[in-house]
Amino acid sequence: MSQKLTDQVTYLSKSLFIRGVRCHKSLYLHKYRPELKDEVSEETEKRFEVGYEIGDLAQGLFPGGVLVPYDGLSHEEQLEMTASLIAQGCKTIYEATFFYNGVFIKADILHHGDRGWDVYEAKSSTGVKDYHLHDASVQYYVISGTGLPVSRVFVVHVNNKYVRQGDIEVDKLLHMEDITALAKENQAFIVEEIERQRAMLKGDEPAIDIGPHCNRFYPCDFISHCWSHIPENSLFDLKGRMDSRFFLYEKGLVSMFDVPEEYLSARQFVQVDAARTHAVHYDHKAVKSFLNSLWYPMYFLDFETSMAAIPPYDGIRPYQQVPFQYSLHHLDQKGGELRHDEFLAIPRTDQRKELTEKLVNEIPEDACVIVYSKAFEIPRLRDLASWFPEHAEKIDKIIQNVRDLIVPFRNYDIYHWQQYGSYTLKDVLPAMLPDFGYDHLDVQNGGMAMDAYAAMNRTDDPEELERIRQSLLEYCKLDSLAMVKILESL
Which listed residue, of 29, 75, 257, 355, carries a Cα 20 to 30 Å from 89's Cα? Predict the structure, then answer.
């Protein structure tokens, strides 16, 4: 057993198997050329952290179990500990460890219920995804292969309909979906795929070109290496839906300038034309129509939000965007003085009520409320109204008066070639106003703001708290000021 565990050619783990299901080349490079990997992104790290959080929470579904730790024990010791616990009659084992036919797995929860041994795989998603089935199926294969009879297999995922009221109710926050039948049906594929991966690992690097599989399940960590031959302004830089990308690529077309016009949408044609000529596309009539829909006083509103798998306060759902900050620039009249108001919640404190009351008192009933992407901002306002119905009437009036600055950019009524197909505020601002941008800030986007606020909630260091606080205020203020400057430029 020890020799098999250390055989780096034939050894597979659950995660390695899933990597290989997506792409044999990715598995090969992981084994033999790991130095070619991309740096782990903040998004990936965050996904791992949330996964661990949900995994720990899922143990509450079957309290009193025994953990088989990964750190501090060799694989062999983990296997021996698992076998010993089963022999002793332990009913619930967390991170139960098994090895069969060269495949090593750790099951999040192994529980002996009324029907026998059940396997539970915890996921931070809000539903069962395709790769979760492969994940659970390979666990069924290995555990059954060791001779331990598996009665049922479950994927445990987050129930995004759950609304917290009081203490977290683990059995309501997490949903257990029985996928036993699917796992059993998948066994022939598991056996065949394990052998395919083993045969591949004993040969040369697979000659697999880029394709949709590179982002299947989640972005591969060898994308920079495998996509290094793709130049700037390629057909993959075209924004919007385009089902023919890889069809054209396989025919030898790579540059966006070589894509036949019949394959381009109207907006993609604008992007290509602007990139070719380094021009700015401007539809005067459409932009004027948009500007005519605005009025004074103008209030430029931007929210920053936090989001957690486990709702922190009452009335909140998993992964619900909860405002903790806003910035509000305003002009009473054309050419008038630009004023600014703001709010940032105190860490580890539920200040939704204070934020709501301050906001509705600062925005006049007749104000034109300008946002950048009402698809994000209006749901935040509606959430505030649902949490605090005493302010619902005022918030509804604010919503009625919202005008979306993204519209002329999303419609490509105005498009600068340096937007590179994007119409987000972070790309539009520096393209239109080169003297403005976010590069000089500690916090440069909404994801970083979310992380910074989470860091505020973890620290008690007064200097660190003040540093993060100032960074958040500076960032959010620039977001609403950016709208003012962009409107001026229009």
Answer: 75
Residues near 240 by beta carbon (within 8 Å), at least 6 away in sequence: 265, 267, 268, 421
Please tell me the distance from the alpha carbon of residue 357 to that of residue 351, in angstroms, as a whole number.
Answer: 10
74 — pLDDT class (breaks 50, 70, 90) = very high
Q: What is the DSSP letter of 370?
A: E
pLDDT tens string 420-458: 999 999 999 999 999 888 889 999 999 999 999 999 999
Measuring CA to CA, which residue among 123, 150, 153, 151 is closest to residue 137? Answer: 153
CA distance 377 to 115: 49
Is the pLDDT confidence value at 5 over 80? no
The two three-digit tokens of residue 448, written as one number: 């970083």
Q: Which residue has the tokens 């396997």?
A: 119
First to last CA, the chain: 70
Side chain identity, residue 406: I
User: Dihedral, CA atoms, 328, 334, 335, 341, nearest 10 degrees?
Assistant: -10
pLDDT of residue 1: 41
**Tokens read off for 66:** 């025994």
Distance CA 177, CA 158 (A): 11
For residue 251, give both structure tokens: 């025919």
The model carries a pTM of 0.90
d(CA 210, CA 100): 33
Residue-level length of the chain: 490
| CA atoms within a 13 Å half-sphere pointing along the CA-CB vector of 123 | 21
Determine the Cα angle at 163 with ends 157 and 166, to 5°. Answer: 110
* 212-245 burial code (b ≥16 CB/10 A, e <16): ebbeeeeebbbbebbeeeeeebbbebbeeebebb
Residues in contact with 30: Cβ distance below 8 Å, sequence separation at least 6, in sequence order: 16, 19, 37, 222
Longest dimension (CA), the chain: 80
Nearest to 407 by CA among 373, 378, 377, 446: 373
Q: What integer best gives the mean pLDDT of the chain?
A: 94
pLDDT of 217: 82
Which domains, and CATH codes, for the chain? 2-201 (3.90.320), 279-490 (3.30.420)
Contacts of 157 (CB under 8 A, 6+ apart): 122, 123, 124, 125, 126, 127, 128, 132, 174, 175, 177
Contact criterion met (CB below 8 Å) for 144 and 294? no
